[in-house]
Structure formats: C-alpha cells, structure tokens
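The instructor's notes for this session suggest beginning with a concrete chain rather than abstract definitions. Hand out the sequence below and ask the class to guess, before any prediction is shown, which regions might be ordered.
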Amino acid sequence: MEDVIANLVRVQPGPQAPHRPWRLRIPWEPTLFILALLGLWQGVSSWTRLPNPALFPSVPVTLRALLQSLPELLKGTWCSFLILVPGYASAVLLGIFWGLLVGTTGWLQRTFSPFARAAAPVPPTVYIPYAIALLPSFRVSAIFVVFVGAFWPVFINTVAGVAAMPSRHRDNARILGLSRSSYLLRVVFRAALPHIFSGMGVGLALSFILLTVAELFGANAGLGRFVQYYADFADYPRMVAGILFTGVVTLLAMGLLEWVRRRALFWIR
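After discussion, reveal the predicted structure:
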C-alpha cells in the first residue's frame, strides 16, 4: 500500500504557474509626472503673458527644433563621450585601486587622508581655466577635469567600503594564507563593491556636469558647446532642445550604470 501511495505522489504533477506572455511595463507614475510637466510648460508658454516670450518656446516648437538638430546633437554626443569616457574610466580604475591600497594600509591611510580631506571638497570647476591654459589641448584639459571630479567620490567610497568590511573576512583571509593581491581582489574588492558603485554613480553625475561646464569654455563641439552656441545667437528653441537632449543622455548613462550594478550585486535587492 505504501508503494502505491509513493507512486501516486511521484506521478502527480505539481501546480504550475500560468504562462504569462511578455508585456512592456510602463512606469505610470513617472510618465504621468512628465506629461504633467509638459502640460504645465505648454500652458505657461502659450497662455501666459511673459516679459520675453522668446525665452520660453512652446513644447511643439522645441520638439521641432530637437528633431531638426538631431544629427548635430548626435555628433556632439560623440565628441562629448570622447572626453567623458577616458576621464571617467581612468578615475574609476585609479580611484578603486588607490582606495583599496589606502583602506588596507595603515601608514598609507595616515599619510594620504589629510591631503584627501583638503583636496576632495575643492570644486573641480576651479581647475578648468588653469587646466586649459596649462595642458596642450582643450580635450586633454577637459579629460583632466572630468577625472578630478569623478576620482574623489570613487576613492572615498572605496575607502568607506573597505572600512565597513566585516573583520571576520580579514581573519579568514589570514587563516587561508591569501597573498596580498588575492586578498585585495577576492576579498576586499568584492566586499567594498556596494560602496564602490555608489561612488561611481556620484562620479558619473559629476562627470556630466563638469564636462558640460568645460565645453562652455572652449570646446568646438559637444553637448555643452551646442547649448552655448545657440544661446549666443538667441536661438532658444534649439538651446532648450540641447538641454533636454543632454538630460536624456545623462539619464541613459545613469540607467546603464544602474543595470550593471544590479547585475554585479545580484545578491542585494
């Protein structure tokens, strides 16, 4: 009798979840908020007496200018990324490497921490005029400014991640006899990853800000140069279109970094 019951239990199919076809999920709250902002923008620009209506182009006029300027904006995006990517990537690599070393080496932390506390709060924008005058080209000086702006958030958060690592990880690494490089890569780096990604997010946002500001000074092409150029000629629909396009590019870049963070930190929800 027991064998019969066991066979019945084994062949009984378990409950299966109903098959649900893939559907596009639209975030309704942000979409409604953006639509409300567009409606407010259209209402203010069309039905309100403004002191200078040319400064407030309507939504259709701005969208038309955006479509007409799309080839120029895409070219400017490419030129901007030729500055952003080298500066940001080098800041991330050096910030993580130096943060791991400083966070795990007592004498190095005592030596470098006073300099970091003094240099990190300095706004990187103050370096722009001197960097343009000192370095051989605008592109090199802009990469340097982006690097400075992104380095400190990555470095500081890496050191904080190392400090927040549980002491049992260090004890287990000593028991296993890991080498210095294996300890930094396999233990410290992975334990500090949540803090590192937080610093990378802040650094990426600052990189876009500094890139745009630097391009206002002396760039021949780029998103910041696009906005400044059409502002000088009082073409405000194209200027506003450039601001909106820059915001979309920044949003996509931040979204890409967030996607990488979720994939890398799959154990954190």
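Then share the key points. The two ends are 47 Å apart (CA to CA). DSSP finds eleven helices and no strands in the chain.
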